[in-house]
Design brief:
55% of the residues lie in helices and 22% in strands. By secondary structure, it is α+β, with helices and mostly antiparallel strands. A six-stranded antiparallel sheet has the order 3-2-1-4-5-6. This is Integral membrane protein.
């Protein structure tokens, strides 16, 4: 009876995972085409309207405000701090919008500084202030990232349905480490892929993005190993160990 239930769980997981893969790839088709069009866009002639042109136009703006947001995670013994930098820019039409920028551009900007804006189909895709320039990605690249990430998660569920036992602990792992590591590795895979689709290999380059992926993979594997070791020291971990030993003894010829 239990084995039948596990088979049913695996079948349902295969259907859900496959549906997520198909839906993510299908929804990514249009953002991918738009992102590639942006990558190949050329500068507009001087008299082209920046709001509607498929080329990259230029527009004058002004830095209305600048600020930072600091995120702190961890506990009192191990604290990690990350600072995000933002500019609020007033465009030529009078509209204002905030943009996350690099620390270099944030440091160069002053309230009231002139901002040179690069505009593609109405979206700001570049900001230059006092000689410091940041490239921004269009919304389509973020949509592409999200859809590819959903497909990655679905692929993980489908793989577990084929290779796993049908037991939830096999999908999530000790303290959810296995599922969390797969989701994190998917983000570290989809993010470089979407940025390369938008900007090519300029900037970070293949080596830079490869380093990001390898770092993400190392963190994922390290998390699975660390949580597994932690679980082995708990009652749940000892229960898993006892089950494994009983299975070994039950095998013919096992020592």
């Amino acid at each position: 009876m239990h084995e039948m239930r596990y088979v049913l769980v695996r079948c349902c997981a295969l259907l859900l995972g496959s549906a997520a893969v198909w839906a993510g790839l299908h929804q990514a088709a249009e953002p991918y085409r738009t992102t590639v069009q942006f990558r190949h866009a050329r500068p507009c002639p001087s008299n082209s309207p920046a709001e509607t042109s498929a080329c990259v136009g230029r527009e004058n703006g002004r830095v209305a405000d600048k600020y930072t947001v600091t995120h702190t995670s961890g506990d009192s013994d191990d604290t990690t701090t990350h600072t995000s930098y933002y500019l609020r820019v007033e465009r030529g039409s009078g509209r204002t919008a905030k943009y996350e920028v690099s620390s270099g551009l944030h440091g160069a900007a002053r309230r009231g500084s002139r901002a040179g804006l690069e505009v593609w189909r109405g979206q700001v895709v570049g900001i230059t202030v006092r000689g410091s320039r940041d490239r921004l990605t269009p919304d389509a690249a973020d949509d592409l990232l999200f859809n590819w990430w959903c497909s990655w998660i679905g692929a993980g569920v489908a793989l577990w349905s084929v290779l796993g036992s049908g037991r939830p602990r096999g999908l999530f792992g000790p303290l959810g480490s296995r599922a969390g590591a797969w989701v994190w590795l998917g983000l570290c895979t989809a993010l470089p892929a979407s940025r390369i689709a938008a900007h090519g290999t300029a900037g970070w380059g293949i080596l830079g993005w490869s380093a990001v992926w390898l770092l993400g993979a190392a963190v994922s594997v390290g998390a699975v190993v660390a949580f597994r070791e932690e679980a082995d020291g708990t009652a749940g971990g000892r229960w898993f160990a006892r089950r494994s030993r009983r299975r070994m003894r039950a095998r013919p010829g096992a020592g």
